[in-house]
């Protein structure tokens, strides 16, 4: 993953997305899993920028990941302390 102001998926990440997709994972879900695996944690906006997905696509993928219990979600208050808190997502780690 290239890193500038925001992390952006690179060719290696796209290969992993393709691998997950070939195993039956929806492509947008695979993009989000790959992004979170590398980034550690991110907001929806970070995911949109890093995966080049539109907000509704991220929302649908996150709904799937929450339903499958694959992501951890936490609220973070904005810097100014006003408005709605931001959701920050990360992949859940599972012992095998």
UniProtKB/TrEMBL annotation:
Gene3D superfamilies: Winged helix-like DNA-binding domain superfamily/Winged helix DNA-binding domain. Residues 83-96 have a biased composition (Basic residues). Residues 73-96 are annotated as: Disordered. Residues 73-82 have a biased composition (Basic and acidic residues). This is HTH marR-type domain-containing protein. It comes from Methanothrix harundinacea.
């Amino acid at each position: 993953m290239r890193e500038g102001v925001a992390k952006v998926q690179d060719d290696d990440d796209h290969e992993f997305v393709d691998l997950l997709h070939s195993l039956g994972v929806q492509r947008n879900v695979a993009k989000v899993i790959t992004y979170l695996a590398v980034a550690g944690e991110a907001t929806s906006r970070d995911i949109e920028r890093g995966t080049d997905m539109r907000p509704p696509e991220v929302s649908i993928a996150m709904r799937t990941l929450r339903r499958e219990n694959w992501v951890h979600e936490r609220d973070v208050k904005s810097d100014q302390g006003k408005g709605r808190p931001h959701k920050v997502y990360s992949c859940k780690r599972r012992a095998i």
